[in-house]
## 1
Amino acid sequence: MFDFSNITSWLHNLLSVTCGLGDFWTILIECILVGVCILAGYAILAIILIFMERKVCAWFQCRLGPMRVGPWGIFQVFADVLKMLIKEIFSVDGADKVLYYIAPFLVIIASVGTFSFLPWNNGAQVLDFNVGLFLMSAISSIGIVGIFMAGWGSNNKYSVVSAMRGAVQLISYEMSLALCLITAVVLTGTMKVSGIVDAQTGAFGWLIFKGHIPAIIAFLVFLVAGNAEANRGPFDLAEAESELTAGYHTEYSGMGFGFYYLAEYLNLFVVSGIAATVFLGGWAPFNIGVAGVDSVLDMIPGIVWFLGKTFGIVFLLMWVRWTFPRLRVDQILKLEWKYLMPLCLINLILMTVVVAFGWHF
Amino acid sequence: MKLENIELSFDNFASEMSKLKNQKHFDYLVTIIGEDFGEEGLGCIYILENTDNNERCSVRTIAKKVDGSDVIPTVVELWKAAELLEREVYDFVGIKFLGHPDMRRLFLRTDFNGYPLRKDFDMSPEANQFPLTDEPESDYTVVYSLDADGRLVATKKRLFEDTDFVVNIGPNHPSTHGVLRLQTVLDGEKVKRIYPHLGYIHRGIEKMWEGMTYPQTLALTDRLNYLSAMMHRHALVGVIEEGMGIELTDRIHYIRTIMDELQRIDSHLLYLGCTAQDLGALTAFLYCMRDREHVLNVMEETTGGRLIQNYYRIGGCQADIDPKFVENTKKLCKYLRPMIQEYLDVFGDNVITHNRLVGVGPMGREDCINYAVTGPAGRAAGWKNDTRKRHPYDLYDKVEWEEITMTGCDSMDRYYCHIKELYQSLNIIEQLIDNIPEGDFYVKQKPIIKVPEGQWYFSVEGASGEFGVYLDSKGDKSPYRMKMRPMGLTLTGALDPMLRGQKIADLITTGAAIDFVIPDIDR
Amino acid sequence: MEENKKSYFGEIGSAMKTLAIGMKTTWKELLTKKSTEQYPENRKTTLHVAARHRGRLVMNRDENGVVKCTACTLCEKACPNGTIKIVSQMVENPETGKKKKQLVDYQYDLGDCMFCELCVNACNFDAIKFVNDFENSVFDREALVLHLDKEVYEGGSLPNIIDGGADFEIGTFNTKTK
């Protein structure tokens, strides 16, 4: 299997040895390169996701979706981005200006931060700590602060209600999310993202095969909780457009709104990416233990596997979003605390038992 | 119905009304008509109905002059529906109701001068400049009463506490289905009190009618609840035809019945979709809209309109049915039946929908009658209020169909009520569509239409309740006073009792489930 | 709607079932034919507009191209909006010597019209009618004030639409552009 670390170490050698730059300059240049790549990837994925959402949503609704700008409307998103960029940015009377302006950045930081943890290919992780999953869930929580600040700072009653809803919902669902990840960590024995993927290579190595029942339960709960974390229907009540117009980002225009919009779609991708990484083996190809078949499957690059799995889950989540009505705030909390939380806790014990007795594959 | 008014004087009004309600069981207040009776002065006509035997009666009383104001005792304690109806009378005619808990204007701006439906109202443009300032708003309302000396006393009453968190749902809000403004007092997510503010799309249709010839009045009805355009116009031509004593051919009756039901299907489909959309299920909304397109296509081929149908006229219909109408309608019925199940599959039977709708915005049968919540919303509480059964018109007493009533009293049953009524409408259409008799589609009328002197009230079953038109004619070519009973006004009045203690999300749900359309409320 | 007597797990089970039915329904729709009508791409091909649709008012003309209007102003009086304004003059017939009203200008303000068809109902001479020519938007309000007796109406922007255009069938969708 192709190892992306070949390229990164070649680059590192090029800078430090061939060009003879010191450690500081080498690392600085590398960081800038990586940063640019991440942001570029982030933007490209946002465009793809927004287009995909429009088309998928349209098809579920018996519509054609955007058709006018370019063939099959593929330039529609570019037109929208352009519109958003040239829109006037204004603020609201009586708004708390500091909170109001900082908030979108916090949301986008949380989103880009978690985005950086995704393992794109063998050896192509940006952030890879030994407490990876832990750090990732910590960074993702910054987004809540952004949402809350936006709602409070906007001087708008709808936004306040929405911010309260958002905070309550995200904090609740973070429990399940973390518990599901812990369940996976129990099985893999590491929190390091690359370690988790490594543990899933080999024949039927993906966690949902390896950890069978408890892993599948954890996977499904993770999808539900992740959907709630990404603030998407049927859990989109923080921005419930029929109740609170647009919720916490009602008062934003231009790129302030654009950041929320981007973050929403990228959070969807990040949640799907994490689910794919932790439960479906990340870039690890699907192996069945027969050498001939496996070698063919291994030929497919890791990034294709990763993107394929992730977009599969993205599609699933879109399907869910465009099918179900929205829940009410008390029902969302009931679902979490009455059903998902207990299930996660029991599941965690189950997984521990499975691992302790070696009942997994 | 030609009105035979019971005349009551100011002194015995309160006691006699109470007798009508409590002893004769006239428990449903259909509408209150405020009218300037010319030399007799200002007054009101109350149309009442007995829900046991569907008997109707009308009461007329002339307001008493006290300190230069015209006053009538309120009937809010007897019929809760009177709360908004009396405010409307106050707004347009200027009668002050003694003891009414919230005597503010309802449709017009608080700084509006004069009472437009009085005959001496100055209509000149100079006296009615378009206001360029914000509407002044007060936290206070006023209650009028007579003191021991018989003088009029105005008592100020506070509407909001200092600490109340007041949110304006509307006038521009995605799910108020128009420009309705609900001033909502919240306690966290809980609703404490709702004050509806109406009139953001008030066009003064009743006032305009007074200066129009009878055929001209028709042009405005389709602009009320545009989803019940046929039924609105049906009520208007109905009352004029009754007043003139026009006999229609069977063909007209058949066409009108079928068209009314097609329109009901159209409205109900949109209702099902909008309920789904207000709950965030956009996909279910689009399925309903997609199929509504077919209904509109069928109607458009005959009427030439999709929203503004413009089809009935005094003495018949605008044009004969399209040659392919029968065939198209049959295809439509065949297409729609399986689709209704799809709405249930994707939305109606969904567990989330049930959680969102069951027990939300509850209102029992007694309260529904008291607040005059007609239509599917009232039938979901078990009140048999379908005008098509109570006071049959056209062919509704000749076809076989079932009046849907349910027992849940909540938004879920309101939703199911609409679903079941769709099937009933399809049944009615299928019974009639093959048997449309030959005959004229229009009975020729004189060039200038005049209605003989008298007062009439005629009502039809609109898509979301009883829609009636009251006509007072002095024998001229234009009406002396015409007044509608809109379907949505009493529904709006019932929002507050339905929603106290419920959540904001339930407000949206209930608003969607009781199915009001603002242009119909505001007129 | 029935009384909820199900257990904790029974409740979850039936809930999951309804969710699955919902997902199944949308999946089915994902694969069926779409319903979007592609106006304006189809405006000269598959577009159907009901022949009775009221798009704008036009004048009927006889075989010589002469309008049938007698300037009796019944339509002007019937209009609730004051959309129609008729200017006429009295002309003496040189042969008989009788004076007769003659139409000078028939002004119809499309921007004010609410398409109620009362003018057509009022007309005794079959002089005016509504056509389904609906592409009437212009950039200037003034351009909506039409002088019907002066214009020579030849079917508007979509010449083949007056009788309804392409066929349509209830229960099917017209998504094609060709």
## 2
Amino acid sequence: MGLIILIVIWLITFASTYFFVAKTWWLPTGASAAAAGIDRYFDITYVLMGIVFVTAQVALGFFAWKYRERSAAAPARYFHGNNTLEIIWTVLTGVLFIGLNLMSSSIWASERFQPAQPGATQVEVTGMQFQWYFRYPGPDGKFGGTKPELIDPSAGGESALGLDTTDPASKDDVVTGTMYVPVNREVEVILRAQDVIHSFFVPAMRFKQDAVPGLAIHMHFTPITTGDYEIACAELCGLGHYKMHGILKVVSQEEFDKWLAAREAEKQ
Amino acid sequence: MATREFAAHESHAHAAPQGFIRKWVFSLDHKVIGLQYYFLALSAVFVGMLLSLLMRIHMIWPNATIPLLGDIKPETYVSLLTMHGTIMVFFVLTTAPQGGFGNYFLPIQIGAADMAFPVLNMLSFWVTFLGYIALLAAFFVPGGAPLHGWTGYPPLSAVPSAGPGEGLGADLWGISIALFCLGALMSALNFITTTLDMRAKGMKLMRMPLTCWAWFITAILGLLAFGVLLSAAILLLLDRNAGTSFYVPLITVNGQVLAHKGGSPLLWQHLFWFFGHPEVYIAIVPAMGLCSQLVSVFSRKPIFGYKAMVYAMLSIGLLGFMVWGHHMFMSGMSPYSAFAFSVMTMAIGVPSAIKTFNWLGTLWGGRIRFASPMLFAIGFVSLFVSGGISGPFLAQPTLDIPLHDTAFVVGHFHLIMGVASIFGIFAATYYWFPKMFGRMMNESLARWHFWFTFVGTYSIFMPMHYLGMAGQPRRYSQFTELHYLDRLIPLNTFITFAAFVTIAAQFIFVFNLFWSMKFGKKASDNPWEATTLEWTTATPPPHDNFGGHTPIVYNGPYEYSVPGAPRDYVMQTDTTAVPAH
């Protein structure tokens, strides 16, 4: 029985570890400035935790086999522990875990403590059951006001957000169902939710943030590769949670300007 | 100190009831109440398991028609996951280890005739039972069961128009949670008082089996955590039914402006997770205590570092109250506080690692007997390591950005809080069944059950980590809308098949349980040659546990293979001299 336990635990351990090492299923290719740093700490954590995982499981399987009851075996050793060992492994794991934590904290700080740089592309992202809307402030750089009583989701676009068309600032606002941003320029996202909590999740950008009703949450990221990236909702928002998705199109600055100008023209 | 308690203890004994109702239904006997909790959890775990199977089927074959139930719609799926989580967390993981085994064995292991407050004990169970009925009733009301997840984040959970199931179903859910909290609070008071006041002569705190320490610590966690959840649930019910706005700001649902104003959705998250994180330990600490017990009994060796184990459990409990914010890194909470929550969370890794080292240290140099309880205890250690090791990923806010609310989290908490704790429940069942029912469970069936469950649960939950890294969000009923999920479908299909096999294997367990009650081999009073007090009394124990006398305790709980002793174990009540240590 000891031998079977050893074999099964070792097999599970090595099979699980294989798929991590082979990266069969891995984080999607990163496309934002922060992705490389986040992925590097992911790698460091997974190597360190991998060592702990394999060591503990291999020892468990080995001890189960080695110390199985046999008629020829010596009686069990009688002792109640070892304080020196307890202190050593307390200190070691303390250093490992807290150290790991402090190492990765600088990335969190740069992502979340700093506001977006001036000149970032501003996009207001609004989540509602079960759709994302994106709003651009237009040439005046100001978002127009919205009013809850004007909201009409079935009409889509500006009406879905309840845009107050009497507000001069709203005249040049552009509302779309697809998010366009220029590459290599920081994007400032202003996250809102109309009904329940949603979560704006762009796996390739290593970006995730809940959109909370009543709050306007300012976040930022910098896309560095052009292309189409899928947007998901990561917070349970009701029966259509699984189909609340969108597309983020990262394009060149010229293309972005052209696209935005065309939307402005449509409005007039 | 113990002498005073010895006197107090006698007055708690009450006469054995005769009628069926007083003996088996409204019983005051902690053993009967323990069994009531256990069978409540057993019925709940089968409901919860069935729901998870339906979820797995729907994920892979979204258009499949289930016999008797018909089609599963996306909203049905979200209701299934809500009910699965709520049933499993509250009515299985919190109910069986503490209410079930804790009730049955805490008084016996400390040498008491019953719990400190038998009437309160009966009330705790029946209030919990009402909570269970209220929850199940949600399936049958108009709109069906709620779809806000077991975490019940408002506004989704607070607004009837937010989706089907958010009407009466969600009210029943809130009532069920509130009732459960009441029951758990009464039970926690009882456990704490019993542990402090009812110990037999000589049962010093540092002579208690680690199971008793675990139940004691779990009760303290419960007392502090369930009060907060109870308040949170009452506020939610008020928001839903009394027009208050604790959690709901001005919102528009489906174009309708609601009458709420000024509430904070994050308030619920803070209250919920202040309970929710300690809840993880409420589920797993009893299993830690039990596993320590079993590793020592079946290695025929004293536990490695008894005091370190006690302090580790205490510090896990204490730290558990300072880390709730790690569930909220992406919630919009201040990013500065994430630092503090993150450091405290990583610190929990230290006592957890100490426990693992000590279990390995106990196996080291032992003479291991692989009876079925020990198989599950070894399985527990393995699962605890596997489920724990993904914690440091999620505890770092930086890495939580890609991983939060993905299948990675689902894999993590199922391995550690779900499967590891359930291995504790299985181990406890196989270990204490002879004492509870006077017969042994069938060992071959138990082994088959172990191997299928061990390999099966790993096959289900380990791949979820890969899915999460690849970005699969949790709580998705179908993978048809996001194209980057296409390549993950084979892995998801594998998980569904693994779930079929694992769930089928649980019927081996149930068959064994009921078959052995009637036809199992007769058990001796101490079949595992263990040292603690439950093995000194008759099988099954008499109404007052020790048949009119009270044990006197001379030794610690883990005196195995003592050099010079006549047998390889020294009972806690033996007067044989044990070397000082």
